[in-house]
């Protein structure tokens, strides 16, 4: 019987490690042999800040995947991109090339490295791009002796280097060019003050000559109202368009982009914003170039009939202020004179000197009896930005005279004329005069015959029953309508009540910042207007008392004088406003049937 013996071959550890290394190198060599060859080139380098350029990536057909160009956005904007595939025949061999063409424009000046771009598992090389400054409208010629005028450039300016908080700064940006442009756009100005109010004053086109060269000018003007003191920076405005664009020769050329895409930036502008003088009360702070307070009447105020209305129109016009910045006016009660002010009409009128804010209030006045009535003086304190002095615009004491009684006149004119008493001369003359006086009494209405009274009674009863039946139907319909809409109304009122509670809480704690946020939330719900984004917007809806306290809150938030704000007055005004709103809502609920009677 034969026996076999198995032998186990044991390799040394060093030989095992050597085999693993050889195998790894073989795999790496195979991978490199099959990796895509990717190249990247720039159409120009260095590049001016305002000029676009092309970045071109090329890869073999066996590239692993689509590229991810996200890293480029850190320092550049990709204006547009395109992809193409080309087949080449070289020395009897075919090769397939893919290319990606990116049009870029830099965000800032400097040397920037575009990191490797991944194409699936394949990676492109990095590339460094140098961006030079090109903010100057002129460049130096190669001989260094003269300047070459720019064909297109932006310039910006402001009408003054310093001004008062909440006053007007006029900012102007101009595009000057000697070349044709297409697909042009220009950004709106932005400032370092997020609450600054920016109003467009319009745009204009004209021609100008600079250093003997005629330029086409496109100009835009803006009125800027900073809401806090300190240094205000107006950020650069950006123009983007295609320069030297040719006119389309056929209808198909309309869809082809021609000309070099160019982006221009204006210079940033900084101005100094001064805080309101400490000697001026914040509620009287109205910085304007000019302010006028005027009144007009709809009739001769010395010949008003008692009981008849006359309209008084009061207008505040302020040069260099918006309409919402103008204060509300209060009207003192005058005994025997009823006054009914309408809601103010606010308007912003752009002009050569910027914005002129206008607030107009119409008041209907009705004298209850004949006599002379004196309306007290009205005044508005304002700060003259031209003379840097506080001034007061006034409407002096005004007297109106009411004559007669319009109701008495109308009633007397409707009465029948009385016959004159005839004086008779007889021996018993007194008795005849007495009889004549008795005959002058107005005749009484004749009594209907008895046989007609039942007809009128039954007719009146019929109309009464019909009226009661109609009223019952209307009440049922009103209750049904109220039941259907009650959940939505209750939810809306609940949200408004919650927002009002926040206002009360923060105002009681003298928390100015959170009071502002709570007021904005409450106003958007109460007035059903989501565009209310700042405190000035609320004053257009609220009463004059609350509007004044809101204005003081707004000024305390942005005043350089860091004084502690006391929310007690605003809290009282806000509670009064809620009371007015509740009464108004109650009146609307009480008159819910009124629309049903309209035709």
Q: What does this molecule look like?
A:
With 599 residues, the protein is α+β, with helices and mostly antiparallel strands. The protein folds into 4 domains: 34-132, Immunoglobulin-like; 138-274, Immunoglobulins (Immunoglobulin-like, Sandwich), CATH 2.60.40.10; 282-408, Immunoglobulin-like (Sandwich), CATH 2.60.40; 475-597, no CATH class. The protein has helices at residues 13-34, 406-414, 429-439, 453-508, 512-526, 535-539, 544-558, 568-590, and strands spanning 38-42, 47-48, 53-60, 76-90, 93-106, 110-114, 118-119, 122-123, 127-132, 138-140, 147-149, 152-158, 162-164, 169-177, 181-186, 197-210, 213-225, 230-234, 238-243, 260-265, 269-274, 287-288, 290-297, 304-306, 310-319, 337-341, 345-351, 354-367, 371-375, 378-384, 389-395, 398-405. Strands 23, 25, 26, 27 and 28 form a 5-stranded antiparallel β-sheet that branches. The chain has a 4-stranded antiparallel β-sheet with strand order 1-3-5-4, with no helix packed on it. A hairpin with a 2-residue loop joins strand 16 and strand 17. The protein is elongated, with a radius of gyration of 42 Å. The protein starts with 12 loop residues before the first helix and ends in a 9-residue tail after the last helix.
């Amino acid at each position: 019987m034969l026996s076999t013996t198995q032998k186990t071959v044991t390799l040394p550890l060093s030989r095992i490690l050597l085999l693993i290394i050889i195998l790894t190198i073989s795999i790496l060599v195979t991978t490199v042999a099959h990796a895509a060859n990717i190249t990247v080139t720039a159409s120009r380098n260095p590049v001016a800040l305002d000029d676009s350029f092309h970045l071109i990536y090329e890869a073999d057909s066996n590239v692993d995947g689509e590229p991810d160009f996200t890293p480029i956005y850190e320092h550049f904007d990709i204006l547009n991109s395109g992809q193409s595939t080309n087949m080449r025949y070289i020395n009897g061999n075919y090769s397939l090339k893919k290319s990606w063409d990116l049009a870029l424009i830099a965000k800032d000046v400097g040397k920037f490295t575009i990191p490797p771009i991944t194409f699936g598992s394949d990676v492109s090389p990095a590339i460094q791009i140098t961006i030079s400054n090109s903010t100057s409208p002129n460049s130096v010629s190669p001989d260094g002796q003269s300047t070459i005028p720019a064909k297109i450039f932006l310039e910006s300016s402001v009408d003054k280097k310093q001004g008062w908080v909440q006053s007007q700064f006029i900012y102007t940006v101009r595009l000057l060019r000697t070349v044709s442009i297409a697909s042009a756009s220009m950004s709106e100005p932005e400032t370092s003050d997020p609450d600054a109010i920016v109003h467009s004053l319009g745009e204009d086109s004209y021609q100008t000559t600079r250093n003997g060269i005629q330029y086409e000018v496109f100009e835009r003007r803006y009125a800027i109202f900073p809401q806090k003191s300190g240094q205000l920076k107006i950020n650069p405005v950006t123009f983007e368009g295609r320069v030297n664009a040719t006119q389309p020769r056929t209808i198909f050329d309309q869809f082809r982009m021609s000309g070099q895409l160019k982006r221009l930036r204006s210079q940033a502008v900084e101005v100094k914003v001064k805080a309101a003088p400490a000697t001026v009360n914040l509620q009287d702070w109205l910085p304007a170039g000019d302010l006028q307070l005027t009144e007009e009447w709809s009739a001769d105020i010395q010949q008003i009939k008692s009981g008849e209305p006359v309209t008084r129109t009061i207008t505040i016009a302020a040069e260099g202020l918006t309409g919402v910045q103008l204060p509300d006016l209060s009207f003192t009660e005058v005994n025997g004179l009823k006054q009914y002010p309408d809601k103010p009409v606010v308007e912003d009128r752009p002009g050569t000197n910027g914005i002129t804010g206008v607030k107009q209030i119409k008041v209907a006045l009705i004298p209850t009896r004949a006599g002379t009535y004196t309306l007290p003086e009205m005044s508005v304190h304002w700060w003259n930005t031209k003379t840097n002095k506080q001034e007061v615009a006034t409407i002096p004491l005004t007297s109106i005279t009411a004559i007669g009684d319009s109701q008495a006149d109308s009633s007397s004119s409707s009465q029948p004329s009385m016959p004159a008493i005839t004086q008779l001369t007889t021996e018993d003359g007194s008795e005849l005069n007495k009889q004549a006086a008795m005959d002058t009494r107005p005749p009484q209405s004749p009594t209907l015959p008895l046989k007609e009274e039942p007809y009128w009674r039954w007719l009146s009863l019929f109309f009464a029953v019909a009226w009661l039946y109609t009223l019952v139907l209307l009440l049922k319909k009103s209750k049904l309508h109220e039941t259907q809409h009650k959940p939505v109304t209750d939810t809306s009122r609940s949200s408004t009540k919650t927002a009002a509670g926040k206002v009360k809480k923060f105002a009681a704690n003298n928390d100015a910042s959170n009071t502002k946020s709570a007021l904005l939330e409450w106003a958007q719900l109460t007035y059903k207007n989501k565009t209310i984004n700042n405190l000035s917007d609320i004053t257009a809806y609220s009463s004059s008392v609350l509007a004044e306290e809101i204005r003081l809150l707004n000024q305390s938030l942005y005043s350089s004088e860091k004084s502690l704000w006391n929310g007690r007055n605003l809290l009282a005004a806000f509670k009064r406003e809620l009371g007015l709103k509740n009464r108004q809502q109650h009146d609307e609920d009480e008159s819910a049937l009124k629309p049903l009677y309209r035709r």
